[in-house]
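Sharing a chain and its predicted structure for anyone who wants a worked example. Both blocks are below, sequence first, tokens second.
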Amino acid sequence: MTDLVELVVLSLLPSRCWLRVAERLRAGVLAHDIAEALVAEHWPEQPDKLPALRTRAGAAIRRAQFQGIAPIAWHDASYPAALAAIVDPPPVLWMRGAVDALNAPAVAIVGARAASPYGSAVAERLAADLSAAGIVVVSGLARGVDSAAHRGTLAAGGRTIAVLGSGVDVMYPPEHAPLAREIERSGLVVSELVPGTPPHRMFFPLRNRIISGLSRAVVVIEAGEKSGSLITARSALEQGRDVLAVPGNVLSGRNRGAHGLLRDGAKIVESADDILEELGMRAGRRAPASAPADPVLACLTPGEPADLDAIAERSGLTPSRLLPRLFELELHGSVARLGCGRFVRIDRSC
């Protein structure tokens, strides 16, 4: 519990500290020591700053326990490996729902809040078809394209993850509270913000890196030139994820951002098959059994954990290309995922 409190303290620090937090956690520095060092550096005139943060962290954990909200710390085995690989992963994720949805293959669908009927229909159809292929659909529970993607997934009996710009117990927009409850039955409602945090405009651009970080690809539908969806797309590119876009009406102005992505080389999406092809998948097709000579397996020694950077160095693959293969090997039972973004090869000779 003490370690969780310190990690929550780190999550309460301003966003300018997050990159340094991640670097030090990866280096093996204790969360307690990181918190003390950063607070002393940034608030030397406020001796009560760290005790106050610890009080807030403890209160957040108690609130979560009372409301059935699960905190997943970055070193937990259930922390999503794809998110752990980004430069500034949240020290703690707060969630309601089925935690196992975090580590299934996922695709983000994002777009305009003021979506046209066409944009909403495309989002619903793509989400439903991706769900039929076993893909988890990630979005932001916003009005328009986001909510259409969530609803399309649920209508198809699939699983979806909603990433919030508020605490998971503070629903925004309020009218989506019933949708969030439906999502929780098979998927997840997730936030990096402690329970009780109200929505704020600064939180939404920050949460977009989580939407892309949880996903193997981001699909943009009806994004204007200054759309928040383009922030998600930029995050995806920085994280080494694939970016795809749906073409639309050139007269409305709703699609200029998405069309800009297409001009810059994003793959055009007309159906879910285009997305699955980009991911090297096909609807209904399971990952093939791994041969003993698999180049990723060859980089792992049974019983000896290795982190993503070490495996990438040995295999010559970038983390963005390595993660999907590790997920496939995990589904096949050849690799197990441990905490802190580490993987271990399973010895099947026993």
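Comments welcome. Residues 1-67 form one domain.
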